[in-house]
TrEMBL record:
Coiled-coil stretches noted in the UniProt entry, renumbered to this chain: none
Organism: Arcella intermedia
Source species, domain of life: Eukaryota
Keyword Metal-binding recorded: no
Name of the protein in question: Uncharacterized protein
Pfam families: LRR_6 (PF13516)
PANTHER family in alphabetical order: LEUCINE-RICH REPEAT-CONTAINING PROTEIN, LEUCINE-RICH REPEAT-CONTAINING PROTEIN 34
Alphabetized UniProt keyword annotations: Repeat
């Protein structure tokens, strides 16, 4: 990838990947890669912290799929923090709800980034539990965001959220 200037899509799903250091370094210098999927690996919070710093420097990446990985609240916070610096990412899949211990703080962080992000148009947060107390915060963020056009909250156990979104 570091020396390949034509690779657009990199799918590394279900490969038991846990170390993203090399890939992160290559991503800093790659300007052709537009999609990376890491679905179903062993990527945890520490590993995604390092990788997140890399995608904040990349201006070609449009899709990042981190679904079904044991990424902690800290890891998700890092992804979202570095999303503030990334001006190209349009689709983000954080469907890792069953792996997260503290869903409420994730919703708080998601809400804060949705309020300021201007490039993300698709957000996938399947299986993320959104309870009644934090629902207003997420709804306010969605109202303030003018670029998000696709939101997938499948299996998120939030039936009362529907009436506020439509």
């Amino acid at each position: 990838m570091l020396f390949n200037s034509t690779l657009n899509t990199l799918k590394l799903n279900n490969n038991m990947i846990s170390d993203l250091t090399t890939l992160g370094e290559a991503l800093k210098k790659n300007s052709s890669l537009t999609e990376i999927t890491f679905r179903g690996n062993h990527i945890n919070g520490e590993q995604i912290k390092t990788f997140s710093r890399s995608f904040s420097h990349n201006s070609s990446l449009k899709l990042l799929d981190l679904s079904d990985n044991p990424i902690s609240y800290i890891g998700i916070s890092e992804v979202i923090t570095h999303l503030r610096k990334n001006s190209s990412l349009t689709e983000l899949d954080l469907s890792i709800g069953k792996h997260i211990q503290s869903d409420q703080t994730i919703v708080e962080v998601l809400s804060s980034i949705l309020k300021i992000n201007t490039t993300l148009n698709t957000l996938i947060i399947k299986e993320l539990t959104i309870n009644e107390e934090e629902r207003p915060e997420l709804i306010d963020a969605l109202r303030e965001n003018s670029t998000l056009t696709n939101l997938d909250c499948s299996s998120s156990k939030t039936p009362s959220l529907i009436k506020f979104l439509v």
